[in-house]
Amino acid sequence: MGIAAISSMLGLGWIATYLAKKWLLRPPGGQNEAEFLAKCIKCDRCRSVCPTSVIGVAHVEDGLAEARTPIMKFHDGYCTMCGKCTEVCPTGALQLFDERTVKIGLATITDTCIAWNADGCTVCFDACPYGAIYLDAHNRPVVDAQKCNGCGKCEKVCPALVLRSYVGGKTRGIEVRPRDGEV
């Protein structure tokens, strides 16, 4: 096999990595991904007006078309559903929404959850503004998918990375992830 063929294969692999589609958590009102990408001009107004700094930007690793578009970064903040991002969106990529029906994502308990590994933590349960987290018989958090709208407050306040810093990684005890069936 020649150098040109090997270079071509490596190049195609690199391109495939950057063109790979993955579902991103968008600000409220941007849940229709195709429509959102068609309208978003990457102006950054939504991010600059966000009072909790939860709106960040996607990187090239998230996809070429998605790079510099707004995404939710729950390690930095959470969504209060204030609607300011939709008010400043000049193209309608972020549309008006009903906070009871708009689902940004779904909070999911991870294997780093303190309550599931040791006991005693109810921080996410106490913080959830929608009552979407309840405690099971062993006082461990469980997410009610019907009530959760993916605001990310539970992820923002989760102390798992601080209290369990020896385990390493970036995964909190609860994270907002795409809902099943969304791509």
Brief account:
With 183 residues, this protein is α+β, with helices and mostly antiparallel strands. Helix content is 28%, strand content 11%. The chain has two domains: 23-101, Alpha-Beta Plaits; 103-183, 2-Layer Sandwich (Alpha-Beta Plaits).
Blueprint (SSEs and pairs):
Layout: H1 3-19, H2 33-39, H3 45-49, E1 55-57, E2 70-72, H4 84-88, E3 106-109, H5 114-117, H6 123-127, E4 133-135, E5 141-143, H7 153-157, H8 160-163, E6 174-177
Antiparallel strand pairs: 1-2, 3-6, 4-5
Describe this structure in words.
28% of the residues lie in helices and 11% in strands. The chain has 2 domains: 79 residues, Alpha-Beta Plaits; 81 residues, Alpha-Beta Plaits (2-Layer Sandwich), CATH 3.30.70.20. The two termini are 37 Å apart. 31% of the residues are buried. It is globular. By secondary structure, the protein is an alpha+beta fold. It comes from Shewanella yunxiaonensis. Keywords: 4Fe-4S, Electron transport, Iron, Iron-sulfur, Metal-binding, Repeat, Transport. This is 4Fe-4S dicluster domain-containing protein. It holds the Pfam family Fer4_7.
Class from helix and strand fractions? alpha+beta
Amino- and carboxy-terminal Cα gap: 37 Å
Q: What is the count of distinct domains? A: 2
Largest sheet data: 2 strands, antiparallel
Order of helices and strands: HHHEEHEHHEEHHE
Give the beta-strand count: 6
Helix % is: 25-40%
Q: What is the topology, as strand order, of the major beta sheet?
A: 1-2
Could you tell me the CATH topology label of the largest domain: Alpha-Beta Plaits
CATH architecture of the largest domain: 2-Layer Sandwich
- Mean of residue pLDDT? 86
The CATH class assignment of the largest domain is: Alpha Beta
How large, in whole angstroms, is the Cα Rg?
19 Å
Broad shape: globular
Instruction: Specify the number of helices.
Output: 8
Percent of residues in beta strands: 5-15%
Instruction: Identify low-pLDDT runs.
Output: 16-20
Organism: Shewanella yunxiaonensis
Keywords: 4Fe-4S, Electron transport, Iron, Iron-sulfur, Metal-binding, Repeat, Transport
Protein name: 4Fe-4S dicluster domain-containing protein
Domain 4Fe-4S ferredoxin-type: 30-60, 70-99, 105-138, 139-169
